[in-house]
Amino acid sequence: MVQKRTREASHAGSWYEFRPAKLSSELDKYLSQVPDTINGKSLPIPGARAIIAPHAGYTYSGPCAAWAYKTLDLTGIKRVFLIGPSHKYYLTNCALSTCSKYETPFGDLTVDAAMCSELRETGDFSNIPFHKEVQEHCLEMHLPYLWKRLEQTFGDDASAYPLIVPIIVGVMGEAEEDHYGHLLAPYLKDSANACIISSDFCHWGSNYDYSPQYIDGVLKNPGHKSPSIIKPNGTTNADVEEPEEPEVSPPPYHEIIKKLDEIAMDAVETGVHGNFHRCIKVTGNTVCGSHPIGVVMAALEALKAEGLEDGKGKFKFIQYQRSGLVVDKDDFSVSYAAAYAVI
Q1: What are the residue ranges spanned by the domains of the chain?
Q2: pLDDT < 70 positions in the chain
Q3: What SS3 state is found at 10?
Q4: What distances in angstroms separate CA 251 from CA 85, 130, 215, 325, 341, one per listed residue?
Q5: Among residues 86, 196, 187, which one has the least CA distance to residue 148?
Q6: How far apart are CA 262 and CA 283, in angstroms?
Q7: Are the CB atoms for 199 and 85 separated by under 8 Å?
Q8: Burial 64-87 (b: 16+ CB within 10 A, else e)
């Protein structure tokens, strides 16, 4: 089903620089701002074959994404799975690219047609409509960074670069995420494969219809009939009676955003897929890539059940940023986070 057509770099020149030399310089600058060691580990971190990174315009999310990409270990990698959410059409399963190449300002990356065919044969994947694939930004925004890291790892010969497997993940429940996670687990187990998860975190404000109140562990989400208690790691909750007005003033909105994102990131770091799924369900946090994250968490959890070495298969967040610090309730902001997992 993969056709000999190239998915153009449709957001180059608007969301990021289209001139190769200037783009390369920009990415080099962002990567240079990341330390060469994190928590005593030199970068890239050996075995860090999975990352979570944002997909907004580089002016906003580029510096945060650099943290994830600098940890990514592409040594010996032959295939990179690119997994992101559907922004442009409603989808309830996972969908695969029908293109043979993805364009970047640096050159084209080749889609792994054989792998796409293998996944299609499961009967669980649909095809991304071509015009929607061109409109979708969540995977494209990762390609220049990926190219830069491939260049650093493999040199200037693009013919030696790994193939890519673009996958769009739709809206699904915990059981469906678990199903796709188990389906992809054998591929993540293979040390020749890497995985990039595309996701921004909290989308706050009237533009996104999300601006809950969070005081002393009680979340009051306008979309819910009753408030909920949220524990620090977001793993449990309970409906509670309407609390009395707190004696203390509510925290600034940007601190509420940070706390909600911390709860989500803590849930991811538990390595338990169900914890993260419940966290998103309870808080309503508008993490656009929650389903892609859930699918890969389920895959890693399946690998741990098979005996993956202790300390592996869990994401570790290393950077968190926001597009702005919200002061008024109706202001808007988007959060960005970077994480890696050693497999």
Answers
A1: 6-207+271-279+288-342
A2: 221-248
A3: coil
A4: 31, 45, 7, 13, 32
A5: 196
A6: 12
A7: yes
A8: bbbbbbbbbbbeebebbbbbbbbe
Cα Dmax for the chain: 65
From residue 117, alpha-carbon distances to 18, 166, 287 in Å are 32, 12, 30
- What DSSP element (H or E) covers 68? helix 58-71
CA distance 212 to 224: 10
pTM to 2 decimal places: 0.92
Q: Which residue shows structure tokens 């442009």? A: 88
The closest alpha carbon to 283, from 233, 219, 198, 342, belongs to: 219
- Each residue of 320-333: pLDDT tens digit? 999 999 988 778 99
State the chain's mean pLDDT as an integer: 92
Compute φ and ψ for 244, nearest 5 degrees.
Answer: -70, 155
Nearest to 259 by CA among 322, 173, 328: 322
**Strand, coil or helix: what is 334?**
strand
In the chain the first and final C-alpha atoms are separated, in Å, by: 31
Q: 179: how many CB neighbours lie within 10 A of its CB?
A: 17
d(CA 343, CA 341): 6
Write the pLDDT tens digit of every residue in 38-71. Answer: 989 999 999 999 999 999 999 999 999 999 999 9
The CATH code that applies to domain 6-207+271-279+288-342 is 3.40.830.10
Each residue of 190-225: b (16+ CB within 10 Å) or e?
eeebbbbbbbbbbbbbeeeebbbbbbeeebebeeee
